[in-house]
Amino acid sequence: xxxPSFSPSGLSQEKAGELIENxxxxxxxxxxxxxxxxxxxxxxxGAGFLSVHEMLDDHVxxxxxxxxxxxxxxxxLGGVPNGLIGHMTKSRDWDDYSVGRAxxxxxxxxxxxxxxGVIGDHREAIxxxxxxxxxxxxxxxxxxxxxxxxxxxxxxxxENTSGELMHGGAESELEAASTxxxxxxxx
Length: 187
Ligand SMILES: [Fe+2]
Description:
Blueprint: H1 13-43, E1 44-45, H2 49-76, H3 85-91, E2 102-103, H4 104-130, H5 134-157, H6 173-181
Helix pairs in contact: 1-2, 1-4, 2-5, 4-5, 4-6
The structure holds fe (ii) ion.
C-alpha cells in the first residue's frame, strides 16, 4: 500500500495512501469519460444532432472540473495524480468506447451504459471513503449527484412514452446502440 510522506492534519498517512489509490481509479474513469463524451460529440449524427452535440460539451466541462478536483485531492493527500494516456490504458479494466458514427438514440443508449459504470464505481468509492475521510467522501458525493443528473439528461432522450429505456436492458454498448436505433419511441 502506498504511504505518502505527508497527509492532512488528523488523517493518517496509511489512510491517505488508501484514499489516493481509490481516487486514482476515479481520476482515470473521469478523464476517460470526458474523452468518450468528446468522441460522441464528434460522431453523433441524425435528428437532434445539434442539441445533443452541444449538451455533450456541457457534460465535458462538468466532468473535467470533477477530474481536476479529484486530481487535486490526490495531491492534497500527498499523492501523485496521473491522468496520462499511457497510465490510463494500463490501469483501467475496461475497453475503449465501441461505437463510431451513429444516430442520436444509438449513442445515447451506449452512453447510458457508460454512465452506469462510472456512477456505480463512484458509489463504491464513496463507501470506501466513508470509512476513512469525510472530506474525500463529501467530494465524491457531490460528484455522484451531478453524474446522476447528467445521466438523466441522457436517459430523457432514450425514454419511450411508457417510461422504458429504449435499449431494453442491453449489456454491451453495441447491443444498446443497435437496439435503441430501431426502437419505437411511441411504444
Ligand atoms: Fe466541438
